[in-house]
């Protein structure tokens, strides 16, 4: 998600990811991986009669994909630190294309070599609807780890 070391991050910096379409294969594989074979995810006929009228992508899958869309830079990110206030505010369906948006909302030092960066993370579908929102935190190196090749893209600008 972040590709800048802690010492280069600032409150209000924002970024937007590339997009990704959620496929039936994604949903079926996630069912198999997690054992979450609830009818609303796995049974098209059952889901036709649900309040959504079709299968709904698992919230856990939306969360995993939406934060991973930014990519992880091993020269900067030490570890996933936590998530708070996770909400699925609109259903995601097979065939939806999501992108993610993040704004840094918190920075705190964590020892001599790290800091914790928190961002308001939102997954947004092709209709501009926010489908998931959370406060996402990562443990970040203060300085880039030597020898790691940086990923492209960056947080830009500071919100007014």
How would you portray this structure in words?
- This is MaoC/PaaZ C-terminal domain-containing protein.
- Residues 13-118 form the MaoC-like domain.
- Pfam families: MaoC_dehydratas.
- This protein has 160 residues and is α+β, with helices and mostly antiparallel strands.
- The protein has one domain (6-153): Roll (Thiol Ester Dehydrase, Chain A).
- It is 19% helix and 36% strand.
- The chain contains four helices and seven strands, in the order ββααααβββββ.
- It has helices spanning 24-34, 39-42, 44-48, 59-68, and strands spanning 13-16, 20-21, 77-88, 97-110, 114-124, 130-141, 156-158.
- Strands 1, 2, 3, 4, 5, 6 and 7 form a seven-stranded antiparallel beta sheet that branches.
- β4 (97-110) and β5 (114-124) form a beta hairpin.
- The protein is elongated, with a radius of gyration of 17 Å.
- The protein starts with 12 loop residues before the first strand and ends with a strand.
- 31% of the residues are buried.
- The mean pLDDT is 92.
């Amino acid at each position: 998600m972040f590709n800048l070391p802690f010492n280069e991050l600032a409150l209000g910096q924002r970024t937007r990811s590339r997009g990704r379409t959620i496929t039936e294969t994604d949903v079926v594989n996630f069912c198999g991986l997690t054992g979450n074979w609830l009818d609303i995810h796995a049974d098209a006929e059952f889901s036709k009669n649900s309040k959504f009228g079709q299968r709904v992508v698992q919230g856990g899958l939306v969360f995993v994909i939406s934060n991973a869309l930014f990519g992880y830079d091993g020269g900067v990110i030490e570890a996933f630190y936590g998530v708070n206030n996770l909400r699925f505010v609109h259903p995601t369906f097979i065939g939806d294309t999501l992108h993610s948006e993040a704004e840094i909302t918190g920075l705190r030092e964590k020892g001599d070599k790290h800091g914790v960066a928190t961002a308001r993370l939102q997954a947004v579908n092709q209709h501009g609807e926010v489908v998931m929102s959370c406060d996402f935190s990562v443990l970040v190196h203060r300085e880039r780890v030597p020898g790691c090749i940086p990923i492209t893209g960056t947080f830009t600008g500071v919100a007014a």
